[in-house]
Design goal:
376 residues; 8 helices
Length: 376
């Protein structure tokens, strides 16, 4: 093994001298060069940013992945795929697993039975909720967690390294100041030659130059925290938007599920309950009453029939609306939406209050109210 013994000894000497200076400063036995107020403020602001970013990142991870064991396993899996430079596969959510278990149970009990058909209905919606959750987790990790983690593991590590180097430069500067002070005191007593004072002054000038240069580097890095705040602000807005979209989707799915379960209950409570089963899990916002006793009609044809009946009713309250989120129609009676587009909406007598009729050119269909901002 090849190493320079003199350099090793020199580094050890520098480390020891800095340790002595640091200890004497703590004990109040040595003078300490104070940083300027602007740099001190930047350092304090940087520490505050780092501490709160860590807390927000950690708590967001806990919120998105409550189980600590699952969270640790997910981080290990993410680390392995990152090292292998491969895309991390999407993880099945617990809600999707619940939905699949319900569907498997329905197959076991018999999909033609009231319990089995209800399991199918609820299971399908659980899988939809799980899919929305999985998309929300992916979006949150990409647009919010990753930028925060990149700051802590990238920019902040660089800042911390330069701050440690600045502290070493400050210790070296104060050591040179102390040496020059001692040299001048010895010169005054005629115990030291003037060249020793000149050497101490030269070392002090070099130390001061290196300290000033490092202070400038550290200041520039810390001033970049303002840009970090702006970046995190955009990430926070993206996170809030993803959260709003997720909850809007969940609200819409649960409203549809409640309508389906009401239809199921009406079917089971009607005469000839031995043959009554729950309808297929599709949106039923246009239903104006319970299904005919003992009758099982396909969801597509039923939706089209009801839509035709609704379209014959008088239109009330036509107005413009701005679409807040993308929405994919679940059947031919609904209208797909794109975020930020403007459409005309109105209602018809007897229509579910959570839905409106939307028009875009020649396209017409049901649209959920929660996805719209009604304009005056």
């Amino acid at each position: 093994m090849d190493f320079n013994v003199k350099k090793l000894a020199s580094d050890a000497g520098v480390f020891f001298t800095r340790a002595v200076q640091f200890t004497e400063e703590k004990l109040g036995q040595a003078e300490k060069t104070e940083l300027d107020a602007h740099l001190e403020n930047l350092i304090s602001r940087g520490d505050c940013t780092k501490n709160w970013t860590e807390k927000i990142l950690r708590q967001t991870e806990v919120m998105l992945q409550p189980n600590p064991i699952d969270h640790t396993g997910a981080r290990i899996e993410e680390f392995i795929y990152d090292k292998l430079d491969k895309k991390l596969p999407s993880r099945t959510t617990n809600t999707e697993l619940l939905g699949q278990f319900m569907l498997d149970a329905a197959a076991e009990f018999g999909p033609e039975t009231p319990y089995g058909s209800t399991l199918i209905t609820v299971g399908e919606y659980q899988k939809r909720l799980g899919g929305a959750e999985r998309e929300f987790l992916h979006t949150s990790a990409t647009t919010f967690l990753t930028p925060l983690r990149n700051f802590l593991e990238g920019d902040w590590r660089t800042i911390s390294k330069e701050r440690r180097l600045l502290e070493n430069r400050r210790l070296d500067l104060d050591i040179c100041k102390a040496r020059l002070k001692k040299a001048k005191q010895a010169e005054a007593k005629a115990a030291l030659l003037s060249e020793e004072v000149d050497k101490a002054e030269h070392e002090l000038r070099v130390a001061q130059t290196e300290f000033d240069r490092q202070a400038e580097v550290t200041r520039l890095l810390l001033e970049g925290i303002s840009s970090t705040h702006l970046n995190h602000l955009r990430c926070l807005q993206d996170f809030a938007e993803a959260q709003a979209t997720y909850h809007a989707q969940c609200h819409h799915y649960m409203q549809d599920l409640q309508r389906e379960l009401n239809k199921c209950a009406n079917s089971i409570g009607a005469p000839n309950t031995s043959t009554a089963v729950c309808p297929s899990p599709v949106s039923s916002a246009f239903l104006t009453g319970p299904a005919s006793p003992g009758a099982v009609v396909s969801s597509t044809s039923s939706s089209r029939m009801l839509t035709a009946e609704q379209m014959q009713l008088p239109v009330t309250g036509a107005r413009k609306a701005k679409v807040l989120y993308d929405y994919d129609a679940h059947d031919s009676s609904e209208l797909s939406l794109l975020a930020d587009e403007l459409i005309t909406v109105y209602t018809v007598p007897g229509m579910d209050p959570d839905w409106l009729i939307g028009e875009r050119g020649n396209d017409k269909g049901k649209v959920p109210v929660t996805y719209l901002e009604l304009l005056s």
